[in-house]
């Protein structure tokens, strides 16, 4: 896979097209990546010992690796 954890990438397709962020995790078997600040999803949490009130938690979802491109140091400047 061409993307590694910590790389700065730009989304080239999908609802978050044009956004930039760093790669948080990579799933090689499914060919998917999680990018910070991209593809935000909301999950409903039941109350538990760690989260007494429960509620809606927002986090990043994974996107297919073909929808991102690595930003080189030259393009970043």
Automatic annotation (TrEMBL):
List GO molecular-function terms, semicolon-separated.
Answer: rRNA binding; structural constituent of ribosome
In terms of CDD domains, this protein maps to:
KOW_RPL26
Q: Which InterPro entries match?
A: KOW (IPR005824), Rib_uL2_dom2 (IPR014722), Ribosomal_uL24 (IPR003256), Ribosomal_uL24_C (IPR057264), Ribosomal_uL24_CS (IPR005825), Ribosomal_uL24_KOW (IPR041988), Translation_prot_SH3-like_sf (IPR008991)
Concerning Pfam families, the annotation shows: KOW, ribosomal_L24
Q: Which SUPFAM superfamilies match?
A: Translation proteins SH3-like domain
Do the record's keywords include Ribonucleoprotein?
A: yes
Give start and end of each KOW domain. 2-29
Alphabetically, which GO biological process terms does the record hold?
translation
- Region listing for Disordered, in residue ranges: 42-61
User: Which GO CC terms are listed, alphabetically?
Assistant: ribonucleoprotein complex; ribosome
Keywords of the record? Ribonucleoprotein, Ribosomal protein, RNA-binding, rRNA-binding
Report whether Cell inner membrane shows up as a keyword of the record. no
> What NCBIfam families does the database record attribute to this sequence?
rplX_bact (TIGR01079)
Q: Which family does it belong to?
A: Belongs to the universal ribosomal protein uL24 family.
Share what the entry says about its subunit structure, partners included: Part of the 50S ribosomal subunit.
Q: What does this protein do?
A: One of the proteins that surrounds the polypeptide exit tunnel on the outside of the subunit. One of two assembly initiator proteins, it binds directly to the 5'-end of the 23S rRNA, where it nucleates assembly of the 50S subunit.
Would you tell me the protein name for this molecule?
Answer: Large ribosomal subunit protein uL24
**Which gene name does the record give?**
rplX
